[in-house]
Amino acid sequence: MTTATKNVMSVETDHVLQVYKRNPVVFERGRGCYLFDANGRGYLDLVSGVGVAALGHAHPRLAAAIADQASTLLHTSNLYYHPLQGEVATRLSDLSGLPRAFFCNSGTEAVEACLKFSRRFWRSQNDTRRTEFVAFEHSFHGRTIGSLSITWDEHYRAPFAPLLSGVQFVSPNDPDALIAAVSETTAAVVLEPLQGEGGVRPFSQRMADAVTEACRRTGALLIADEIQCGLGRTGRPFYSSVLGLTPDLMAVGKALGAGVPIAAALFSERVAKAAAFGDHGSTYGGNLLACRAALVFLEELIDRDLISTSRKPAASSSIGCATSQLAGRSCGRCAALD
Fold first, then answer.
1. Distance CA 19, CA 204 (A)
2. Same domain? 105 vs 241
3. Do residues 80 and 179 both lie within one domain?
4. Which ranges in 71-106 belong to alpha helices (H)?
5. Contact 111, 143 (CB under 8 A)
6. Catalytic residue among 136, 225, 238, 267
7. Is residue 312 annotated as part of the catalytic site, yes or no?
8. 60-69: per-residue pLDDT in tens?
9. Is 117 annotated as catalytic?
10. Domain for residue 7, yes or no?
11. Which pLDDT score is estimated for 199?
12. Closest to 107 measured CA to CA, from 143, 59, 151
């Protein structure tokens, strides 16, 4: 371990809130699917910033767009219009079928917006009973008080109790329990169509059908958390559609900015109509820099067909790409970085 690395770690230990149990390595740059430490040693990045670096590191189009935007206009505020929010919202609408977006900075903020506006919807209907949520065991939705309240694992929850009341957790393998839990006091059912905390747990079609039926029977809204499994990670824009789910609200984030913080809560028109000026806001949400990054990512994903890579067998996906680089060759996906 170099002296410079030790110094970085020492300063953090003294001055940064100790909530991350970091690995003893300091990364200074990245390229493609690799990160490099201070000694120039390369590491195959299988974490991708916890699902964020969807275009790899130092992607040339993304870097050029960010540099151009930084030299033009980074931020105004949501008190004014700028030309990029509408473009990103339109693209997300085309992919999701949900016509309206609220932009924020992180997935947990997007989930928080979905929770708030599911309750806002019922308040606009003069139904004050609808305050409860049904979520699933093994779920992870974020770390704000609201999103933590619908996150299942007790080791995340316990230090911050009491959280929101009126949350029930059901097994993702028990459709009958889901049907029994959803009632006329349920504001929304919240699910990750493909759970990613501590493993990969796809929802069965039987459970997805039970969710659809429970929401139809009771009128409860459906919130899909597509922060980790959405935006091409499964080879489809969103996994909800694979299961035949039709969410009223959707949370997206992580990959959307390909490393630049941006997230969004997406709304059906009937839920969006419940919103009024001043109901919600974000200082940085959807600023020009973030939206410019999101547009580059969406262009790569859809227009340049990056999404098809996720549908290929493992040998030709990102693992194969990294293997070919280790062998001294570049596949087509990495050639743009050479």
1. 35
2. yes
3. yes
4. 85-96
5. no
6. 225
7. no
8. 999 999 999 9
9. no
10. no
11. 81
12. 143
For residue 179, the model assigns a pLDDT of: 97
CATH number of the domain within which 115 lies: 3.40.640.10
Residue 34 has pLDDT above 80, yes or no: yes
Distance between CA 233 and CA 226 in Å, rounded? 10
Q: Which of 140, 203, 238, 297 is catalytic?
A: 140
Q: How far apart are CA 309 and CA 293, in angstroms?
A: 20
What's the number of domains the chain is made of?
2
Is 109 in the same domain as 237? yes
Kindly indicate the confidence band of residue 314, based on its pLDDT and cuts at 50, 70 and 90: low
What local confidence, expressed as pLDDT, does residue 336 receive? 34
Contact call for residues 271 and 248 (beta carbons, < 8 A): yes
Does 1 map to a domain? no
Same domain, 250 and 274: yes
Q: Are 300 and 61 in contact (CB under 8 A)?
A: yes
Residues 123 and 236 placed together within one structural domain of the fold: yes
Give the domain range for residue 258: 67-298
14: which 2 tokens? 């003294």
Q: What ranges in 106-188 are assigned the alpha helix state H?
A: 107-124, 145-149, 154-157, 175-181
Q: Is the pLDDT of residue 38 over 80?
A: yes
On whether residue 41 sits in a domain, the answer given is no
Q: Pull the structure tokens for residue 46.
A: 């299988």
Q: Is the peptide bond before 159 cis (omega within 30 degrees of 0)?
A: no
CB atoms inside a 10 Å sphere around CB 331: 16
Q: Of 248, 254, 267, 297, which is the active-site residue?
A: 254
Give the global pTM. Answer: 0.90
* Residues 326, 182 within the same domain: no
Q: Please, what is the end-to-end C-alpha distance for the chain in angstroms?
A: 30
Is residue 54 domain-resident? no
Beta bridge partners of 263: 104
Please indicate, yes or no, whether residues 189 and 332 belong to a single structural domain of this protein: no
Q: Are residues 159 and 230 in the same domain?
A: yes
Mean pLDDT, all residues of the chain = 91
Contact (CB, 8 A) for 51 and 255: yes
Active site residue 21: no
